[in-house]
Amino acid sequence: MKRKSIFLTFGLLVLSWIGCVENDLPYPTIVGQITEMEVAGMTSCRILGASNTVEIKVADTIDLRDLRVEKLVVTEGMKVYPDSAACLDIAHFPDTGFVSADSLPAGMDTRMNFLNPVKFRLSLYQDYDWTVNVSRDIVRKIKIKNQVGSALIDDYTKNVIVYVDSTEQPSLRNIEIEELQLGSSIAQTTPDPSKVVDFTRPRVFYVTAFDETEEWTLSVQYPNANVQLTQLSAWTRRAYVSGSISKGEVEAEYRKAGETVWESVLPNEISYEGEDFLIMMTHLAAGTNYEYRLTMNGTVGEILTFTTDTIMQVPNLGFDDWVMKNEKTWYPNATLDDADHFWDSGNEGASIASRNPTAPETGDVVKGRAVRMASDYISIASKFAAGNIYTGDFVGLAGIEGAELDFGQPYTGRPSALKGYYRYTPGVIDQAKAPYDALMGQTDSCHIYIGLFDWSAPFRVNTTTGTFVDLTWNNESMIAFGELKSNEATGSEYKQFKINLTYRDYFTHPKYILIVASASKYGDYFTGSTSSVMYLDECELVFE
To answer: Model pTM?
Structure first.
């Protein structure tokens, strides 16, 4: 009995000591992200991870005051706290993410008022605030008889200016409005546009929909010398001019500043869409001053000028410069200084096992040094690591298993292609995770891609939350894109490649460039072959 008493006393002392021990282990940092979101009537969605913002457009017939959230996918484990003032029934709004509102238990209500920006707070160990902005996808349509060019629309001041041909329309007292849609396609416009004919002064129209009324001012004027009906975009070796012409055709000529002979733009370099035209001037010299003039229906316009862009390469595209940090981690840059940091890889994450999936190659090269990317399995972390390289920065680990990367580096050039040499030996996929676990046993693929974006900051990738750059044209930030994907071995020799860039438009300057190469295409999802190896050498941006 005495022994039992001693053991009991000892046990109580131990429990008391344990109860006094403080838990000094820090909570893990798991970033709260909205990775997917859909609402009723949605036409597009843009998720900006860098600013924790979601930009959604819906059909112009949708009432923003009573809008159902149909999908809200967030970082696993996060609690969702929506703006209570925006919820039509806060008591029945889900407190977790969901892939479909139809799959929620009966009685749940995901309707919200999106007339103003709506806040969502995601919380696990830390709080992350997101803002969702929803707007109608309104296409404003203005067409007046004898109109010249496109209408000038100021959405902010709600002013519209339309120019008409002074010969065909000598009076502003008998203007004929053929089409006027300034708001939603179901909005009511007063007064009736077809009955307003006198535009010797600006006229006011009231556009009403969803119990809201907007006041718009429409002016009809004659063009004058100060009116610019054309837009020019000068690239490195070509330039684009867009404009409008009510009837007939347009011709264009250009020459270097100081020269006397004009060069005519070929007919196949001028395209038309309705009254709008697009002219392309080619075979230009980089960083050079030019003059050009347009001829519309036989009338020669004034001489205008432009300067082409200079050639903008990015550092170390030949992959000759390398530096080692702490005698264990390779970086594809000239020095470790921030000013020289343009490229990065997954080496920092693999450094816990003193491994470098991405390293310099000095033997098997086209010239100088090359980059060798060998996919690997890091046993100490129990994770597959694809050999890769990208323009950007490794930020750090995210949670227990993932990483955060800043994709993209500042860049304003507009190349036409990326070319270089690669050598690839694919292995059989022996590491696979969802959603690509079905690829197990298939041949691995390499991936090289280049994109130009108008981001305001680098894109924060988070492999834990599945936050990656959208490489489809649904991504409105993407200005240009091109890629190479292959599961074929190149043999013992390097193979030359050229990736042409497709541009969304010719007039937007990019702000960031993203170049990524990986020996395993789905390495971001920890899927690939530990036998896949890719070499990349002597790359450069092409300006044509």
So the answer is: 0.65
